[in-house]
Amino acid sequence: MKRKVLLIYTGGTIGMEKDYETGSLVPFNFENIFGKIPEMKLIESEVSVHPFQKPLDSSDMGPEQWKIIAGYIGENYENYDGFLILHGTDTMAYTASALSFMLRGLKKPVILTGSQLPIGDLRTDAKENLLTSLYYASLYENDEAVVQEVAVYFEYKLLRGNRTLKFSAEYFDAYQSPNYPILGQSGVHLNFDKDALFRTRVDSPFSVDLHLSSEVLFWRIFPGMTMDLFPVLPKMKVLILQVFGSGTIFSSAETEETLRKIRANGTEIVVVSQCVSGGISFGKYENSNIFSRIGAISGNDITAETAITKAMHLIDNPNYQGTFAENFSSDLCGEMTEDF
User: Fold this and answer.
1) What whole-number distance in Å separates Cα of residue 221 and Cα of residue 340?
2) Can you say whether the dihedral through the CA atoms of 240, 241, 243, 246 is positive or negative?
3) Which of 32, 91, 120, 198 has the highest local Cβ count within 10 Å?
4) Does 146 fall in a domain?
5) Cα distance between residue 219 and residue 305, in whole Å
6) pLDDT-based confidence at 33, cuts 50/70/90?
7) Residue 115: which CATH number?
8) Is 248 one of the annotated active-site residues of the chain?
9) Residue 340: pLDDT band by 50, 70, 90 thresholds?
């Protein structure tokens, strides 16, 4: 059976080529992608291409574009066996995280990929990333999709989208999933860690939840910073604090007083770690107990990108029962380890 894959091109380096008159990178007509990569015709799947009307640099991608992508997948969910999203690399982890929450009950592959070099460059990584992503997006066993989640494929590795972060602007191997195993690797064969693959409940129907809020603020704590600015911040529904190590912050009375005022304002405080690997453990050190005393929420081993998009998705979302704290602390789609 020939599987059908919908390829959504949003923009980014993978869809660029050099203008030899100016030397600048410009988008090419993505409808001609089969001419750029004729090997695509050798893949045993039927590929339909849907490019954004205006390709976007990934720095311009945000909630409105996430809604467009999620909505388009929802409209075409029954017509395709898998979905491949071509995306700029700088914010791909944010988009993958957001989509993982918006595409509820997902039982088909949604793969994001991009490249560090344009598709026409001699040493480009674009062709391998695109071709192997197509394989992953169309791979079924016993009439069931092998991948049933939002994933990022880059440089021979398949990673859970909401566990992924970009760690290099220089190397082809640009993405890591430090707190979760690699889902699959591409070599002579496509290999999977089947125990690591996400599976939603069989009785959970697929739906698209486009709810996103902009009332989130992310603040990185650093040594010697003043707390004077915090009381004059506009009231936000959620403040995400990126703190030291496993959850510590400077222990002055001013710090606790300021954070209590923010909480009294009705703002939820989520705590995530500045460390790439590991996560938050309230009570491990004395200087983390302040967060327990003020009723902050531990982000456990969640990435900063996923903490932001998860908060945006949960704030005042009528499709969830329980409090924001209860829902944020729950592992919704494989994004965090609950008992970290």
Assistant:
1) 22
2) negative
3) 91
4) yes
5) 13
6) confident
7) 3.40.50.1170
8) no
9) confident
Q: Measured between alpha carbons, how far is 131 from 118 in angstroms, rounded to an integer?
A: 15
Mark whether 55 and 201 lie in a shared domain: yes
Give dist(CA 33, CA 30) in Å, integer. Answer: 5
CA distance 131 to 292: 48
How large is the average pLDDT for residues 179-190? 92
The most distant pair of C-alpha atoms in the chain lies apart, rounded to whole Å, by 66
Which of the listed residues 163, 179, 208 is the one where a domain comes to its end? 208
What are the Cα distances from residue 132, in Å, to 37, 150, 156, 197, 319?
12, 15, 8, 18, 35
Burial of 272 (0-12, 13-18, 19+ CB in 10 A): buried
Instruction: Consult the annotation and say whether 90 binds a ligand.
Output: yes
pTM, to two decimals: 0.94
Q: Which residues contact 278 (CB under 8 A, 6 or more apart)?
A: 179, 245, 246, 301
Is 124 in the active site? no
Structure token digits, residue 277: 């690997």
Helices and strands of the chain, counted as H and E runs: 8, 20
pLDDT of residue 120: 66
Q: What average pLDDT does this structure show over 247-273?
A: 94
- How far apart CA 148 and CA 197 sit, in angstroms, is 8
Neighbours of 111 (CB within 10 A): 29
Do 270 and 200 share a structural domain? no
The active-site residue out of 10, 89, 164, 303 is 89
From 208, 230, 261, give the residue that closes a domain: 208
Q: Do 198 and 273 sit in the same domain of this protein?
A: no
| Boundaries of domain holding 100 | 3-208
Q: Which residue has the tokens 């029962």?
A: 321
Whether 120 and 199 share a structural domain = yes
Within-domain flag for 148: yes
Task: Please give the average per-residue pLDDT across 261-289, as a whole number.
Answer: 94
58 is in an annotated binding site: yes
CB 308 within 8 A of CB 295: no
Are 196 and 224 part of one and the same domain? no
Q: Are residues 52 and 150 in the same domain?
A: yes
- Number of independent structural domains in the chain: 2
Residues 7 and 129 in one domain: yes
